[in-house]
Amino acid sequence: MKKYNSFYCRVKNVKFLGLLLFLNIIFITHNYSQDVVSKNGMVASAHPLASNAGLQILEEGGNAIDAMVATAFALGVVEPSASGIGGGGFLTIKLSTESNGVTIDFREKAPYRATPKIYYSEGKSFKEMVRSGGMSIGVPGTVAGLTLALKKYGTMNLEQVLKPAIKYAQNGFEVSEKFSNMIVEAYDVISENDATSKIYLSDGLPFMEGAIIKNPDFAKTLIKLGSKGADCFYKGEIAKAIASEMKDENGIITIKDLSNYKA
Question: How much is the pTM?
Fold first, then answer.
């Protein structure tokens, strides 16, 4: 499910105005509406735990970029249906100290082997190929885009801003009614993949509201990402694992596609 959401940010002399694929994040330091007032900053996202992640970073002294990155990674854990490190997006940053803004493009890119001949060959359904499975996936850009923003405009390192997301993945989070309904709606797709089913199904059935979902393997991935950086995702052991899984799922993303990706 792909959707574009706008967001505005102004914290500690840092302003944002842009579009971010899969994310819906708002930071404000003044009375953005008549109903909400904050003296020191505010974080709003599609999930309260993700918002808390950004708030935690602000309270620890991070700036708006740090908080945004933390919120984005946390959304990948608690709202995986619309966010995650397997996706991509755009980020436009406007610093209050500069007259011009900058846009970071980290949309997914088609693998080198992706050609019309592959997707429209006789005997294959294009709609089914792009709906799920290895052939439906583009080279992910979220990790590259968020780490680039953090490096150029943040004040914290990747390991610091990943802590909330790692905590949610390790300890688990409570399933909301909305999240449970999403699992039900995507049941057919989820049940086709053993690894996904292991996380989001309980005894073959969708988790109900109030249940706790944990994702320890994703926590391990985020820990590696925090300690080794984006190169681990695009050139190191995570990249190798992605390429291996793509091969097993008849996908066409290779190590070369990942290593050549740039935000």
Answer: 0.84
- Six token digits for residue 251: 């996908």
Cross-strand bridge partners of residue 19:
6
> Please, are residues 27 and 18 in contact by the beta-carbon 8 Å criterion?
no
pLDDT in tens, 5-25: 333 333 333 333 333 333 444
Residue closest to 46 by CA, chosen among 26, 70, 19, 62: 26
Nearest-angstrom CA–CA distance, 64 and 28 = 9
The pLDDT tens digits for 108-150 are 999 999 988 888 876 677 887 887 788 889 999 999 999 999 9
Question: Please, what sign has the CA dihedral across residues 34, 39, 45, 49?
Answer: negative
Provide CB contacts within 8 A for 30, sequence distance 6+. Answer: 10
Q: What is the DSSP string of the chain?
A: ---EEEEEEEETTEEEEEEEET---EEESS-SBTTB--SS-EEE-SSHHHHHHHHHHHHTT--HHHHHHHHHHHHHHH-TTT--TT--EEEEEEETTSSS-EEEEE--B--TT--HHHHT-TT--HHHHHHSSGGG-PBP-HHHHHHHHHHHH-SS-HHHHTHHHHHHHHH-EEPPHHHHHHHHHTHHHHHT-HHHHHHHEETTEEPPTT-EE--HHHHHHHHHHHHH-HHHHHTSHHHHHHHHHHHHTT----HHHHHT---
